[in-house]
């Protein structure tokens, strides 16, 4: 079983191609919560540059710190004990976040320019994907974007998480990234071409998200689940550590503004004849999520203050 791979350019193809592709996208959202896009419109040349500057940044500005980190020391110490204990509340991951207004790595030539260009492209792609979701759900054009931006304007949160999962000497004692669903909206992942490790939970089974060159993996977060009144589910996923290879993972998150009110779309509540989720402010949801990220998601929806 492999997650769907969809040619996104065919959304602009003939009527027949478009209908088929829209159906594939609907199936990706409804049945999987994860799918891979080829021909997504982000230039290959830019993606190659992103790979290059990310790898260089890790080697130049991150690797030494990771090797000397408390995490590495704790894992080696545990391995020596040989008592079967595992490192539970940590992830074997080197990670930093890029926002419009935070400090970016500055020693790697071309990193800032390349990643700024990449983020602009990915934000446009996220909005195109949300447009497809609107159409497939039968919502007014621009509905999801408007909900996330708390009205017109550009208030949504758009962050990019740059992660590396370095070779792990004792993969049986730690996870790369613990199983979770994503709190936000639409997640766009540019993952490693060669080193696997990402898995999603489908029908009780963990399935590999196969590395495919220069694809963008899309997954839906908790807020899309709420807006769609449960028609699109956020999916549990995790990363396994490997002894070989340094897995690159660049995830961009198009999330609601912290002030945005999120609720099931009225059209879908009417259609389903029931409202499955409470109405809440996204910032309140995030406060709950931070505490409960790796716990079952249903109680998170209930714990959030209804507006």
| Straight-line distance between termini | 41 Å
- Counting DSSP H or I runs of 4 or more residues, the number of helices is 9
What is the strand tally? 13
Characterize the biggest β-sheet: 7 strands, mixed
SSE topology string: EHEHHEHHEEEEEEHEEEHEHH
Strand ordering within the main sheet: 1-2-9-6-11-4-3
Query: How would you classify the helix and strand content by structural class?
Result: alpha+beta
* Low-confidence runs of at least 5 consecutive residues: none
Shape call: globular
The portion of residues forming beta strands comes to 15-25%
Describe what is shown at a glance.
This protein is α+β, with helices and mostly antiparallel strands. It contains nine helices and 13 strands. The termini are far apart.
Verbal overview:
- The chain has 307 residues and is of the alpha+beta class.
- It is built from nine helices and 13 strands.
- Strands 1-2-9-6-11-4-3 form a seven-stranded mixed β-sheet. The protein has a four-stranded antiparallel β-sheet with strand order 5-10-7-8, with no helix packed on it. Strands 12-13 form a two-stranded antiparallel ribbon.
- Helix 1 crosses helix 4 and helix 2 packs across helix 4.
- 37% of the residues are buried.
Q: Which terms would index this structure?
A:
single chain, 307 residues, alpha+beta, 9 helices, 20% strand
Task: Please render the helix and strand layout as text.
Elements: E1 5-7, H1 15-32, E2 34-38, H2 44-67, H3 70-81, E3 94-98, H4 111-137, H5 143-148, E4 157-165, E5 177-180, E6 186-191, E7 198-202, E8 205-208, E9 216-220, H6 222-227, E10 237-239, E11 247-255, E12 261-262, H7 266-272, E13 280-281, H8 282-292, H9 298-303
Parallel strand pairs: 1-2
Antiparallel strand pairs: 2-9, 3-4, 4-11, 5-10, 6-9, 6-11, 7-8, 7-10, 12-13
